[in-house]
């Protein structure tokens, strides 16, 4: 890791990826598996899966954003992930030509579904009996935690979550995750919650996330470019924590995996 005047630098995106990779490993994603990644975007999770299933496995990423998929395909080509494929469309209408999967993975997708239980049932239909379904969902129910007020941290938290709320997402999907899995007829095997803990001596790089979110924040009138000032945001956040000698937790991330009943052959291909 590189050092700055604020101490060590860590990328929030990298920390989040490490959290996702731990979830995939703990859930049992392993060599040779065929795995479906829904809402794959530019392929971040798909490539984590691909590294775990190896050359004898296969990953199919599905997303409705053609632009994101073009980036994902280019990245797969650059990384020589020949068995990682990407298709455009809705996972609910996935063609039977793709067959069934050993596992399905979803990160921050269920929170955007109008009916999470219906979405889970649709997803389970393309997973083989006894197969895995693995989920990671952020949740705003547990409020920010810090010993003293951190106004800029509060603002950033508000910009992100107000945008997500105005997009129609379920802000409490983490807490709703296990009940939804059960209602969908799946067997919940494990649920845990984790948090990214930001400390005064570490400079956390949130700029890539904020830059990616900026068009959506502006579209929904949540904040202005001047308020956010994305080019200086990381340093201002770091300075605020360091000056207050404060440790900060912004949100909780719920990680869960469930299994399709082994005797459920009604939806198998």
Structure, briefly:
By secondary structure, this protein is α/β, with parallel strands linked by helices. It has helices at 12-27, 44-53, 66-78, 116-124, 151-166, 173-183, 207-219, 225-228, 230-244; strands at residues 3-4, 7-11, 34-38, 58-63, 84-88, 101-107, 127-139, 187-194, 197-198, 202-205, 248-249, 252-259. It has a domain at 3-30 and 100-259: 3-Layer(aba) Sandwich (Rossmann fold), CATH 3.40.50.
How would you describe this protein?
The chain is of the alpha/beta class and 269 residues long. The protein has a domain of 188 residues: Rossmann fold (3-Layer(aba) Sandwich), CATH 3.40.50. Helix content is 40%, strand content 25%. It is built from 9 helices and 12 strands. Strands 5-4-3-6-7-12-8 form a 7-stranded mixed β-sheet, with helices on both faces. A hairpin with a 2-residue loop joins β1 and β2. The N terminus is likely disordered.
Helix content: 25-40%
Mean pLDDT: 92
Q: Provide the spatial order of strands within the biggest beta sheet.
A: 5-4-3-6-7-12-8
Could you state the order of secondary-structure elements as H and E?
Answer: EEHEHEHEEHEHHEEEHHHEE
How far is it from the N-terminal to the C-terminal residue, by CA? Answer: 47 Å
CATH-derived architecture of the domain at 3-30 and 100-259: 3-Layer(aba) Sandwich
Give me the number of helical elements. Answer: 9
Annotation, overall tally of beta strands: 12
Strand content: 15-25%
Shape: globular
Ranges where pLDDT stays below 50 over 5 or more residues in a row are 1-6
Structural class: alpha/beta
CATH topology of the domain at 3-30 and 100-259: Rossmann fold
What's the gyration radius in Å? 19 Å
């Amino acid at each position: 890791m590189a050092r700055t005047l604020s101490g060590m630098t860590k990328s929030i995106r990298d920390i989040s990826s490490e959290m996702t990779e731990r979830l995939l490993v703990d859930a049992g994603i392993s060599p040779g598996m065929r795995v479906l990644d829904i809402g794959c975007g530019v392929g971040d999770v798909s490539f984590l899966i691909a590294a775990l299933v190896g050359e004898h496995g296969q990953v199919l990423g599905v997303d409705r954003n053609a632009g994101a998929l073009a980036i994902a395909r280019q990245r797969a080509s650059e990384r020589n992930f020949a068995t990682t494929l990407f298709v455009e469309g809705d996972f609910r209408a996935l063609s039977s030509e793709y067959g069934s999967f050993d596992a399905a993975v979803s990160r921050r997708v269920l929170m955007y579904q109008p009916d999470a239980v219906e979405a889970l049932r649709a997803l389970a239909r393309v997973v083989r009996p006894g197969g895995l379904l693995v989920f990671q969902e952020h949740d705003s129910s547990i409020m920010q935690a810090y010993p003293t007020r951190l106004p800029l941290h509060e603002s950033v938290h508000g910009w992100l979550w107000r945008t997500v709320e105005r997009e129609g997402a379920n802000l409490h999907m983490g807490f709703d995750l296990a009940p939804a899995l059960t209602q969908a007829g799946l067997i919940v095997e494990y649920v845990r919650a984790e948090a990214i803990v930001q400390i005064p001596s570490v400079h956390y790089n949130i700029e890539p996330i904020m830059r990616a979110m900026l068009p959506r924040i502006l579209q929904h009138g949540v904040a202005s470019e001047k308020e956010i000032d994305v080019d200086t945001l990381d340093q201002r956040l770091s300075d605020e924590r360091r000056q207050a000698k404060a440790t900060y937790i912004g949100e909780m991330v719920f990680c869960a995996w469930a299994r399709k009943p082994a005797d459920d052959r009604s939806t198998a291909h």
